[in-house]
Amino acid sequence: MASGDYKVEPDGTCAPFEPVRCHTFITESTFGLPIYKWPSQAEVFREINDWWRANAAAGRASVLFCYAFGKAQRILHGLDENIGTIVVHGAVEPLNKVYREGGVYLPPTIYAGDLKKGDPRLKQAIILAPPSAGGSTWMRRFGDYADAFASGWMMLRGTRRRRGVDRGFVLSDHADWPGLLWAIEQTGAERVMVTHGSVPILVRYLREMRGLDAQAFETEYGDEDDANTQEAE
Predict the structure, then answer these.
(1) Which residues does the chain have with pLDDT short of 50?
(2) Could you give the strand order of the β-sheet that contains 126-129, starting from the edge strand earlier in sequence?
(3) What is the SS3 assignment for 141?
(4) CATH number of the domain at 41-169, out of 1.10.10, 1.20.1540, 3.40.50, 3.30.450?
(5) Is 118 left (phi over 0), alpha (psi -120 to 50) or beta?
(6) What are the φ and ψ backbone dihedral angles of 224, each rounded to 5 degrees?
(7) At a CB cut-off of 8 Å and minimum separation 6, what does 7 contact?
(8) Nearest residue to 199 (alpha-carbon basis) of 13, 85, 51, 33
(9) Which of 60, 96, 164, 184 fits as disulfide partner to 55, beta carbons 3.0 to 4.6 Å?
C-alpha cells in the first residue's frame, strides 16, 4: 500500500488518517527524525489566536505565512473569528470556496485585493498568505504588521531565522516521528519502503529496532531540495 503524504492527527478539514492492514507499506519520511514531535494542534491554534489577539490589541496587523492549499484552510478552521477580520491572499480564497462547497466550515474571509491601504479593519486583522508573498510589494498595504510562519520546519531555530519572521508556529501536514512509527505499526506491514525525507535514518531504525524489512524507495522526483520542501510543507 502507498500512503502519499499523511498526518495522523485529525483536523476537521479532511478525512482522518485510517490505517489499512497490508504486507508492504510505502511511507514518506519528510520529518523522519526523532527530534520532530509535534505539539497538539489545539495548543498551536491557541498560540496563534493569542498572538493575533495581542497584535490586534496593539493596533497591528498579523500576517501568517502558510501553504495556500490545505494548511491555510486548516488554520482558518482553528481561528477565533471573534478577534477581528480575517483576510486572505488571492491564492487562498479560491480554495476556501472549494472547501466551503464541500461542507467544511471556514470562518468568513475577505480577499485582500478588496481592501485599500489604510483600511481600519487591517489594524485588528489576521492575513493568511503564501510564503512567496513575503517581502513583496503586496505586503505594503498592511502598514505596521507582525509576521509569522506556520510549518513543521518552524521547530528548527535556524529555519525560523532564515525566514526572518517574528514568530514560528509548529504546524505540519506531515506525520512527526512518533506518528510515522505509529502508522507503520498499525499497518502490520512486514516490508516498509521509505521515501522523501530522512530516509536512511528511518530505514535503519525500522531494521534494527523493529526488525522489519525496510529499504529506501526512490521516486522519479528524487530528493527535493530543502527550499522547495519547506515551501510546499
Answers:
(1) 223-229, 232
(2) 110-111, 86-88, 126-129, 61-65, 145-150, 167-169
(3) helix
(4) 3.40.50
(5) left
(6) -70, 140
(7) 17, 172, 173, 174, 175, 179
(8) 33
(9) 60
CA distance 196 to 214: 14
Nearest CA-CA partner of 95 in 116, 131, 122, 67: 67
Name the residue ranges covered by the structural domains of the chain: 24-38+173-226, 41-169
Give the global pTM.
Answer: 0.92
The reported pLDDT for the residue numbered 23 is 97
Contact between residue 8 and residue 27 where contact means Cβ atoms under 8 Å apart: no
Residue keyed to cell 519528510: 30
DSSP state of 33: S
Cell matching residue 91: 491564492
Single-letter amino acid code for the residue at 12 = G
Sheet strands side by side (includes 24-29): 24-29, 191-197, 213-216
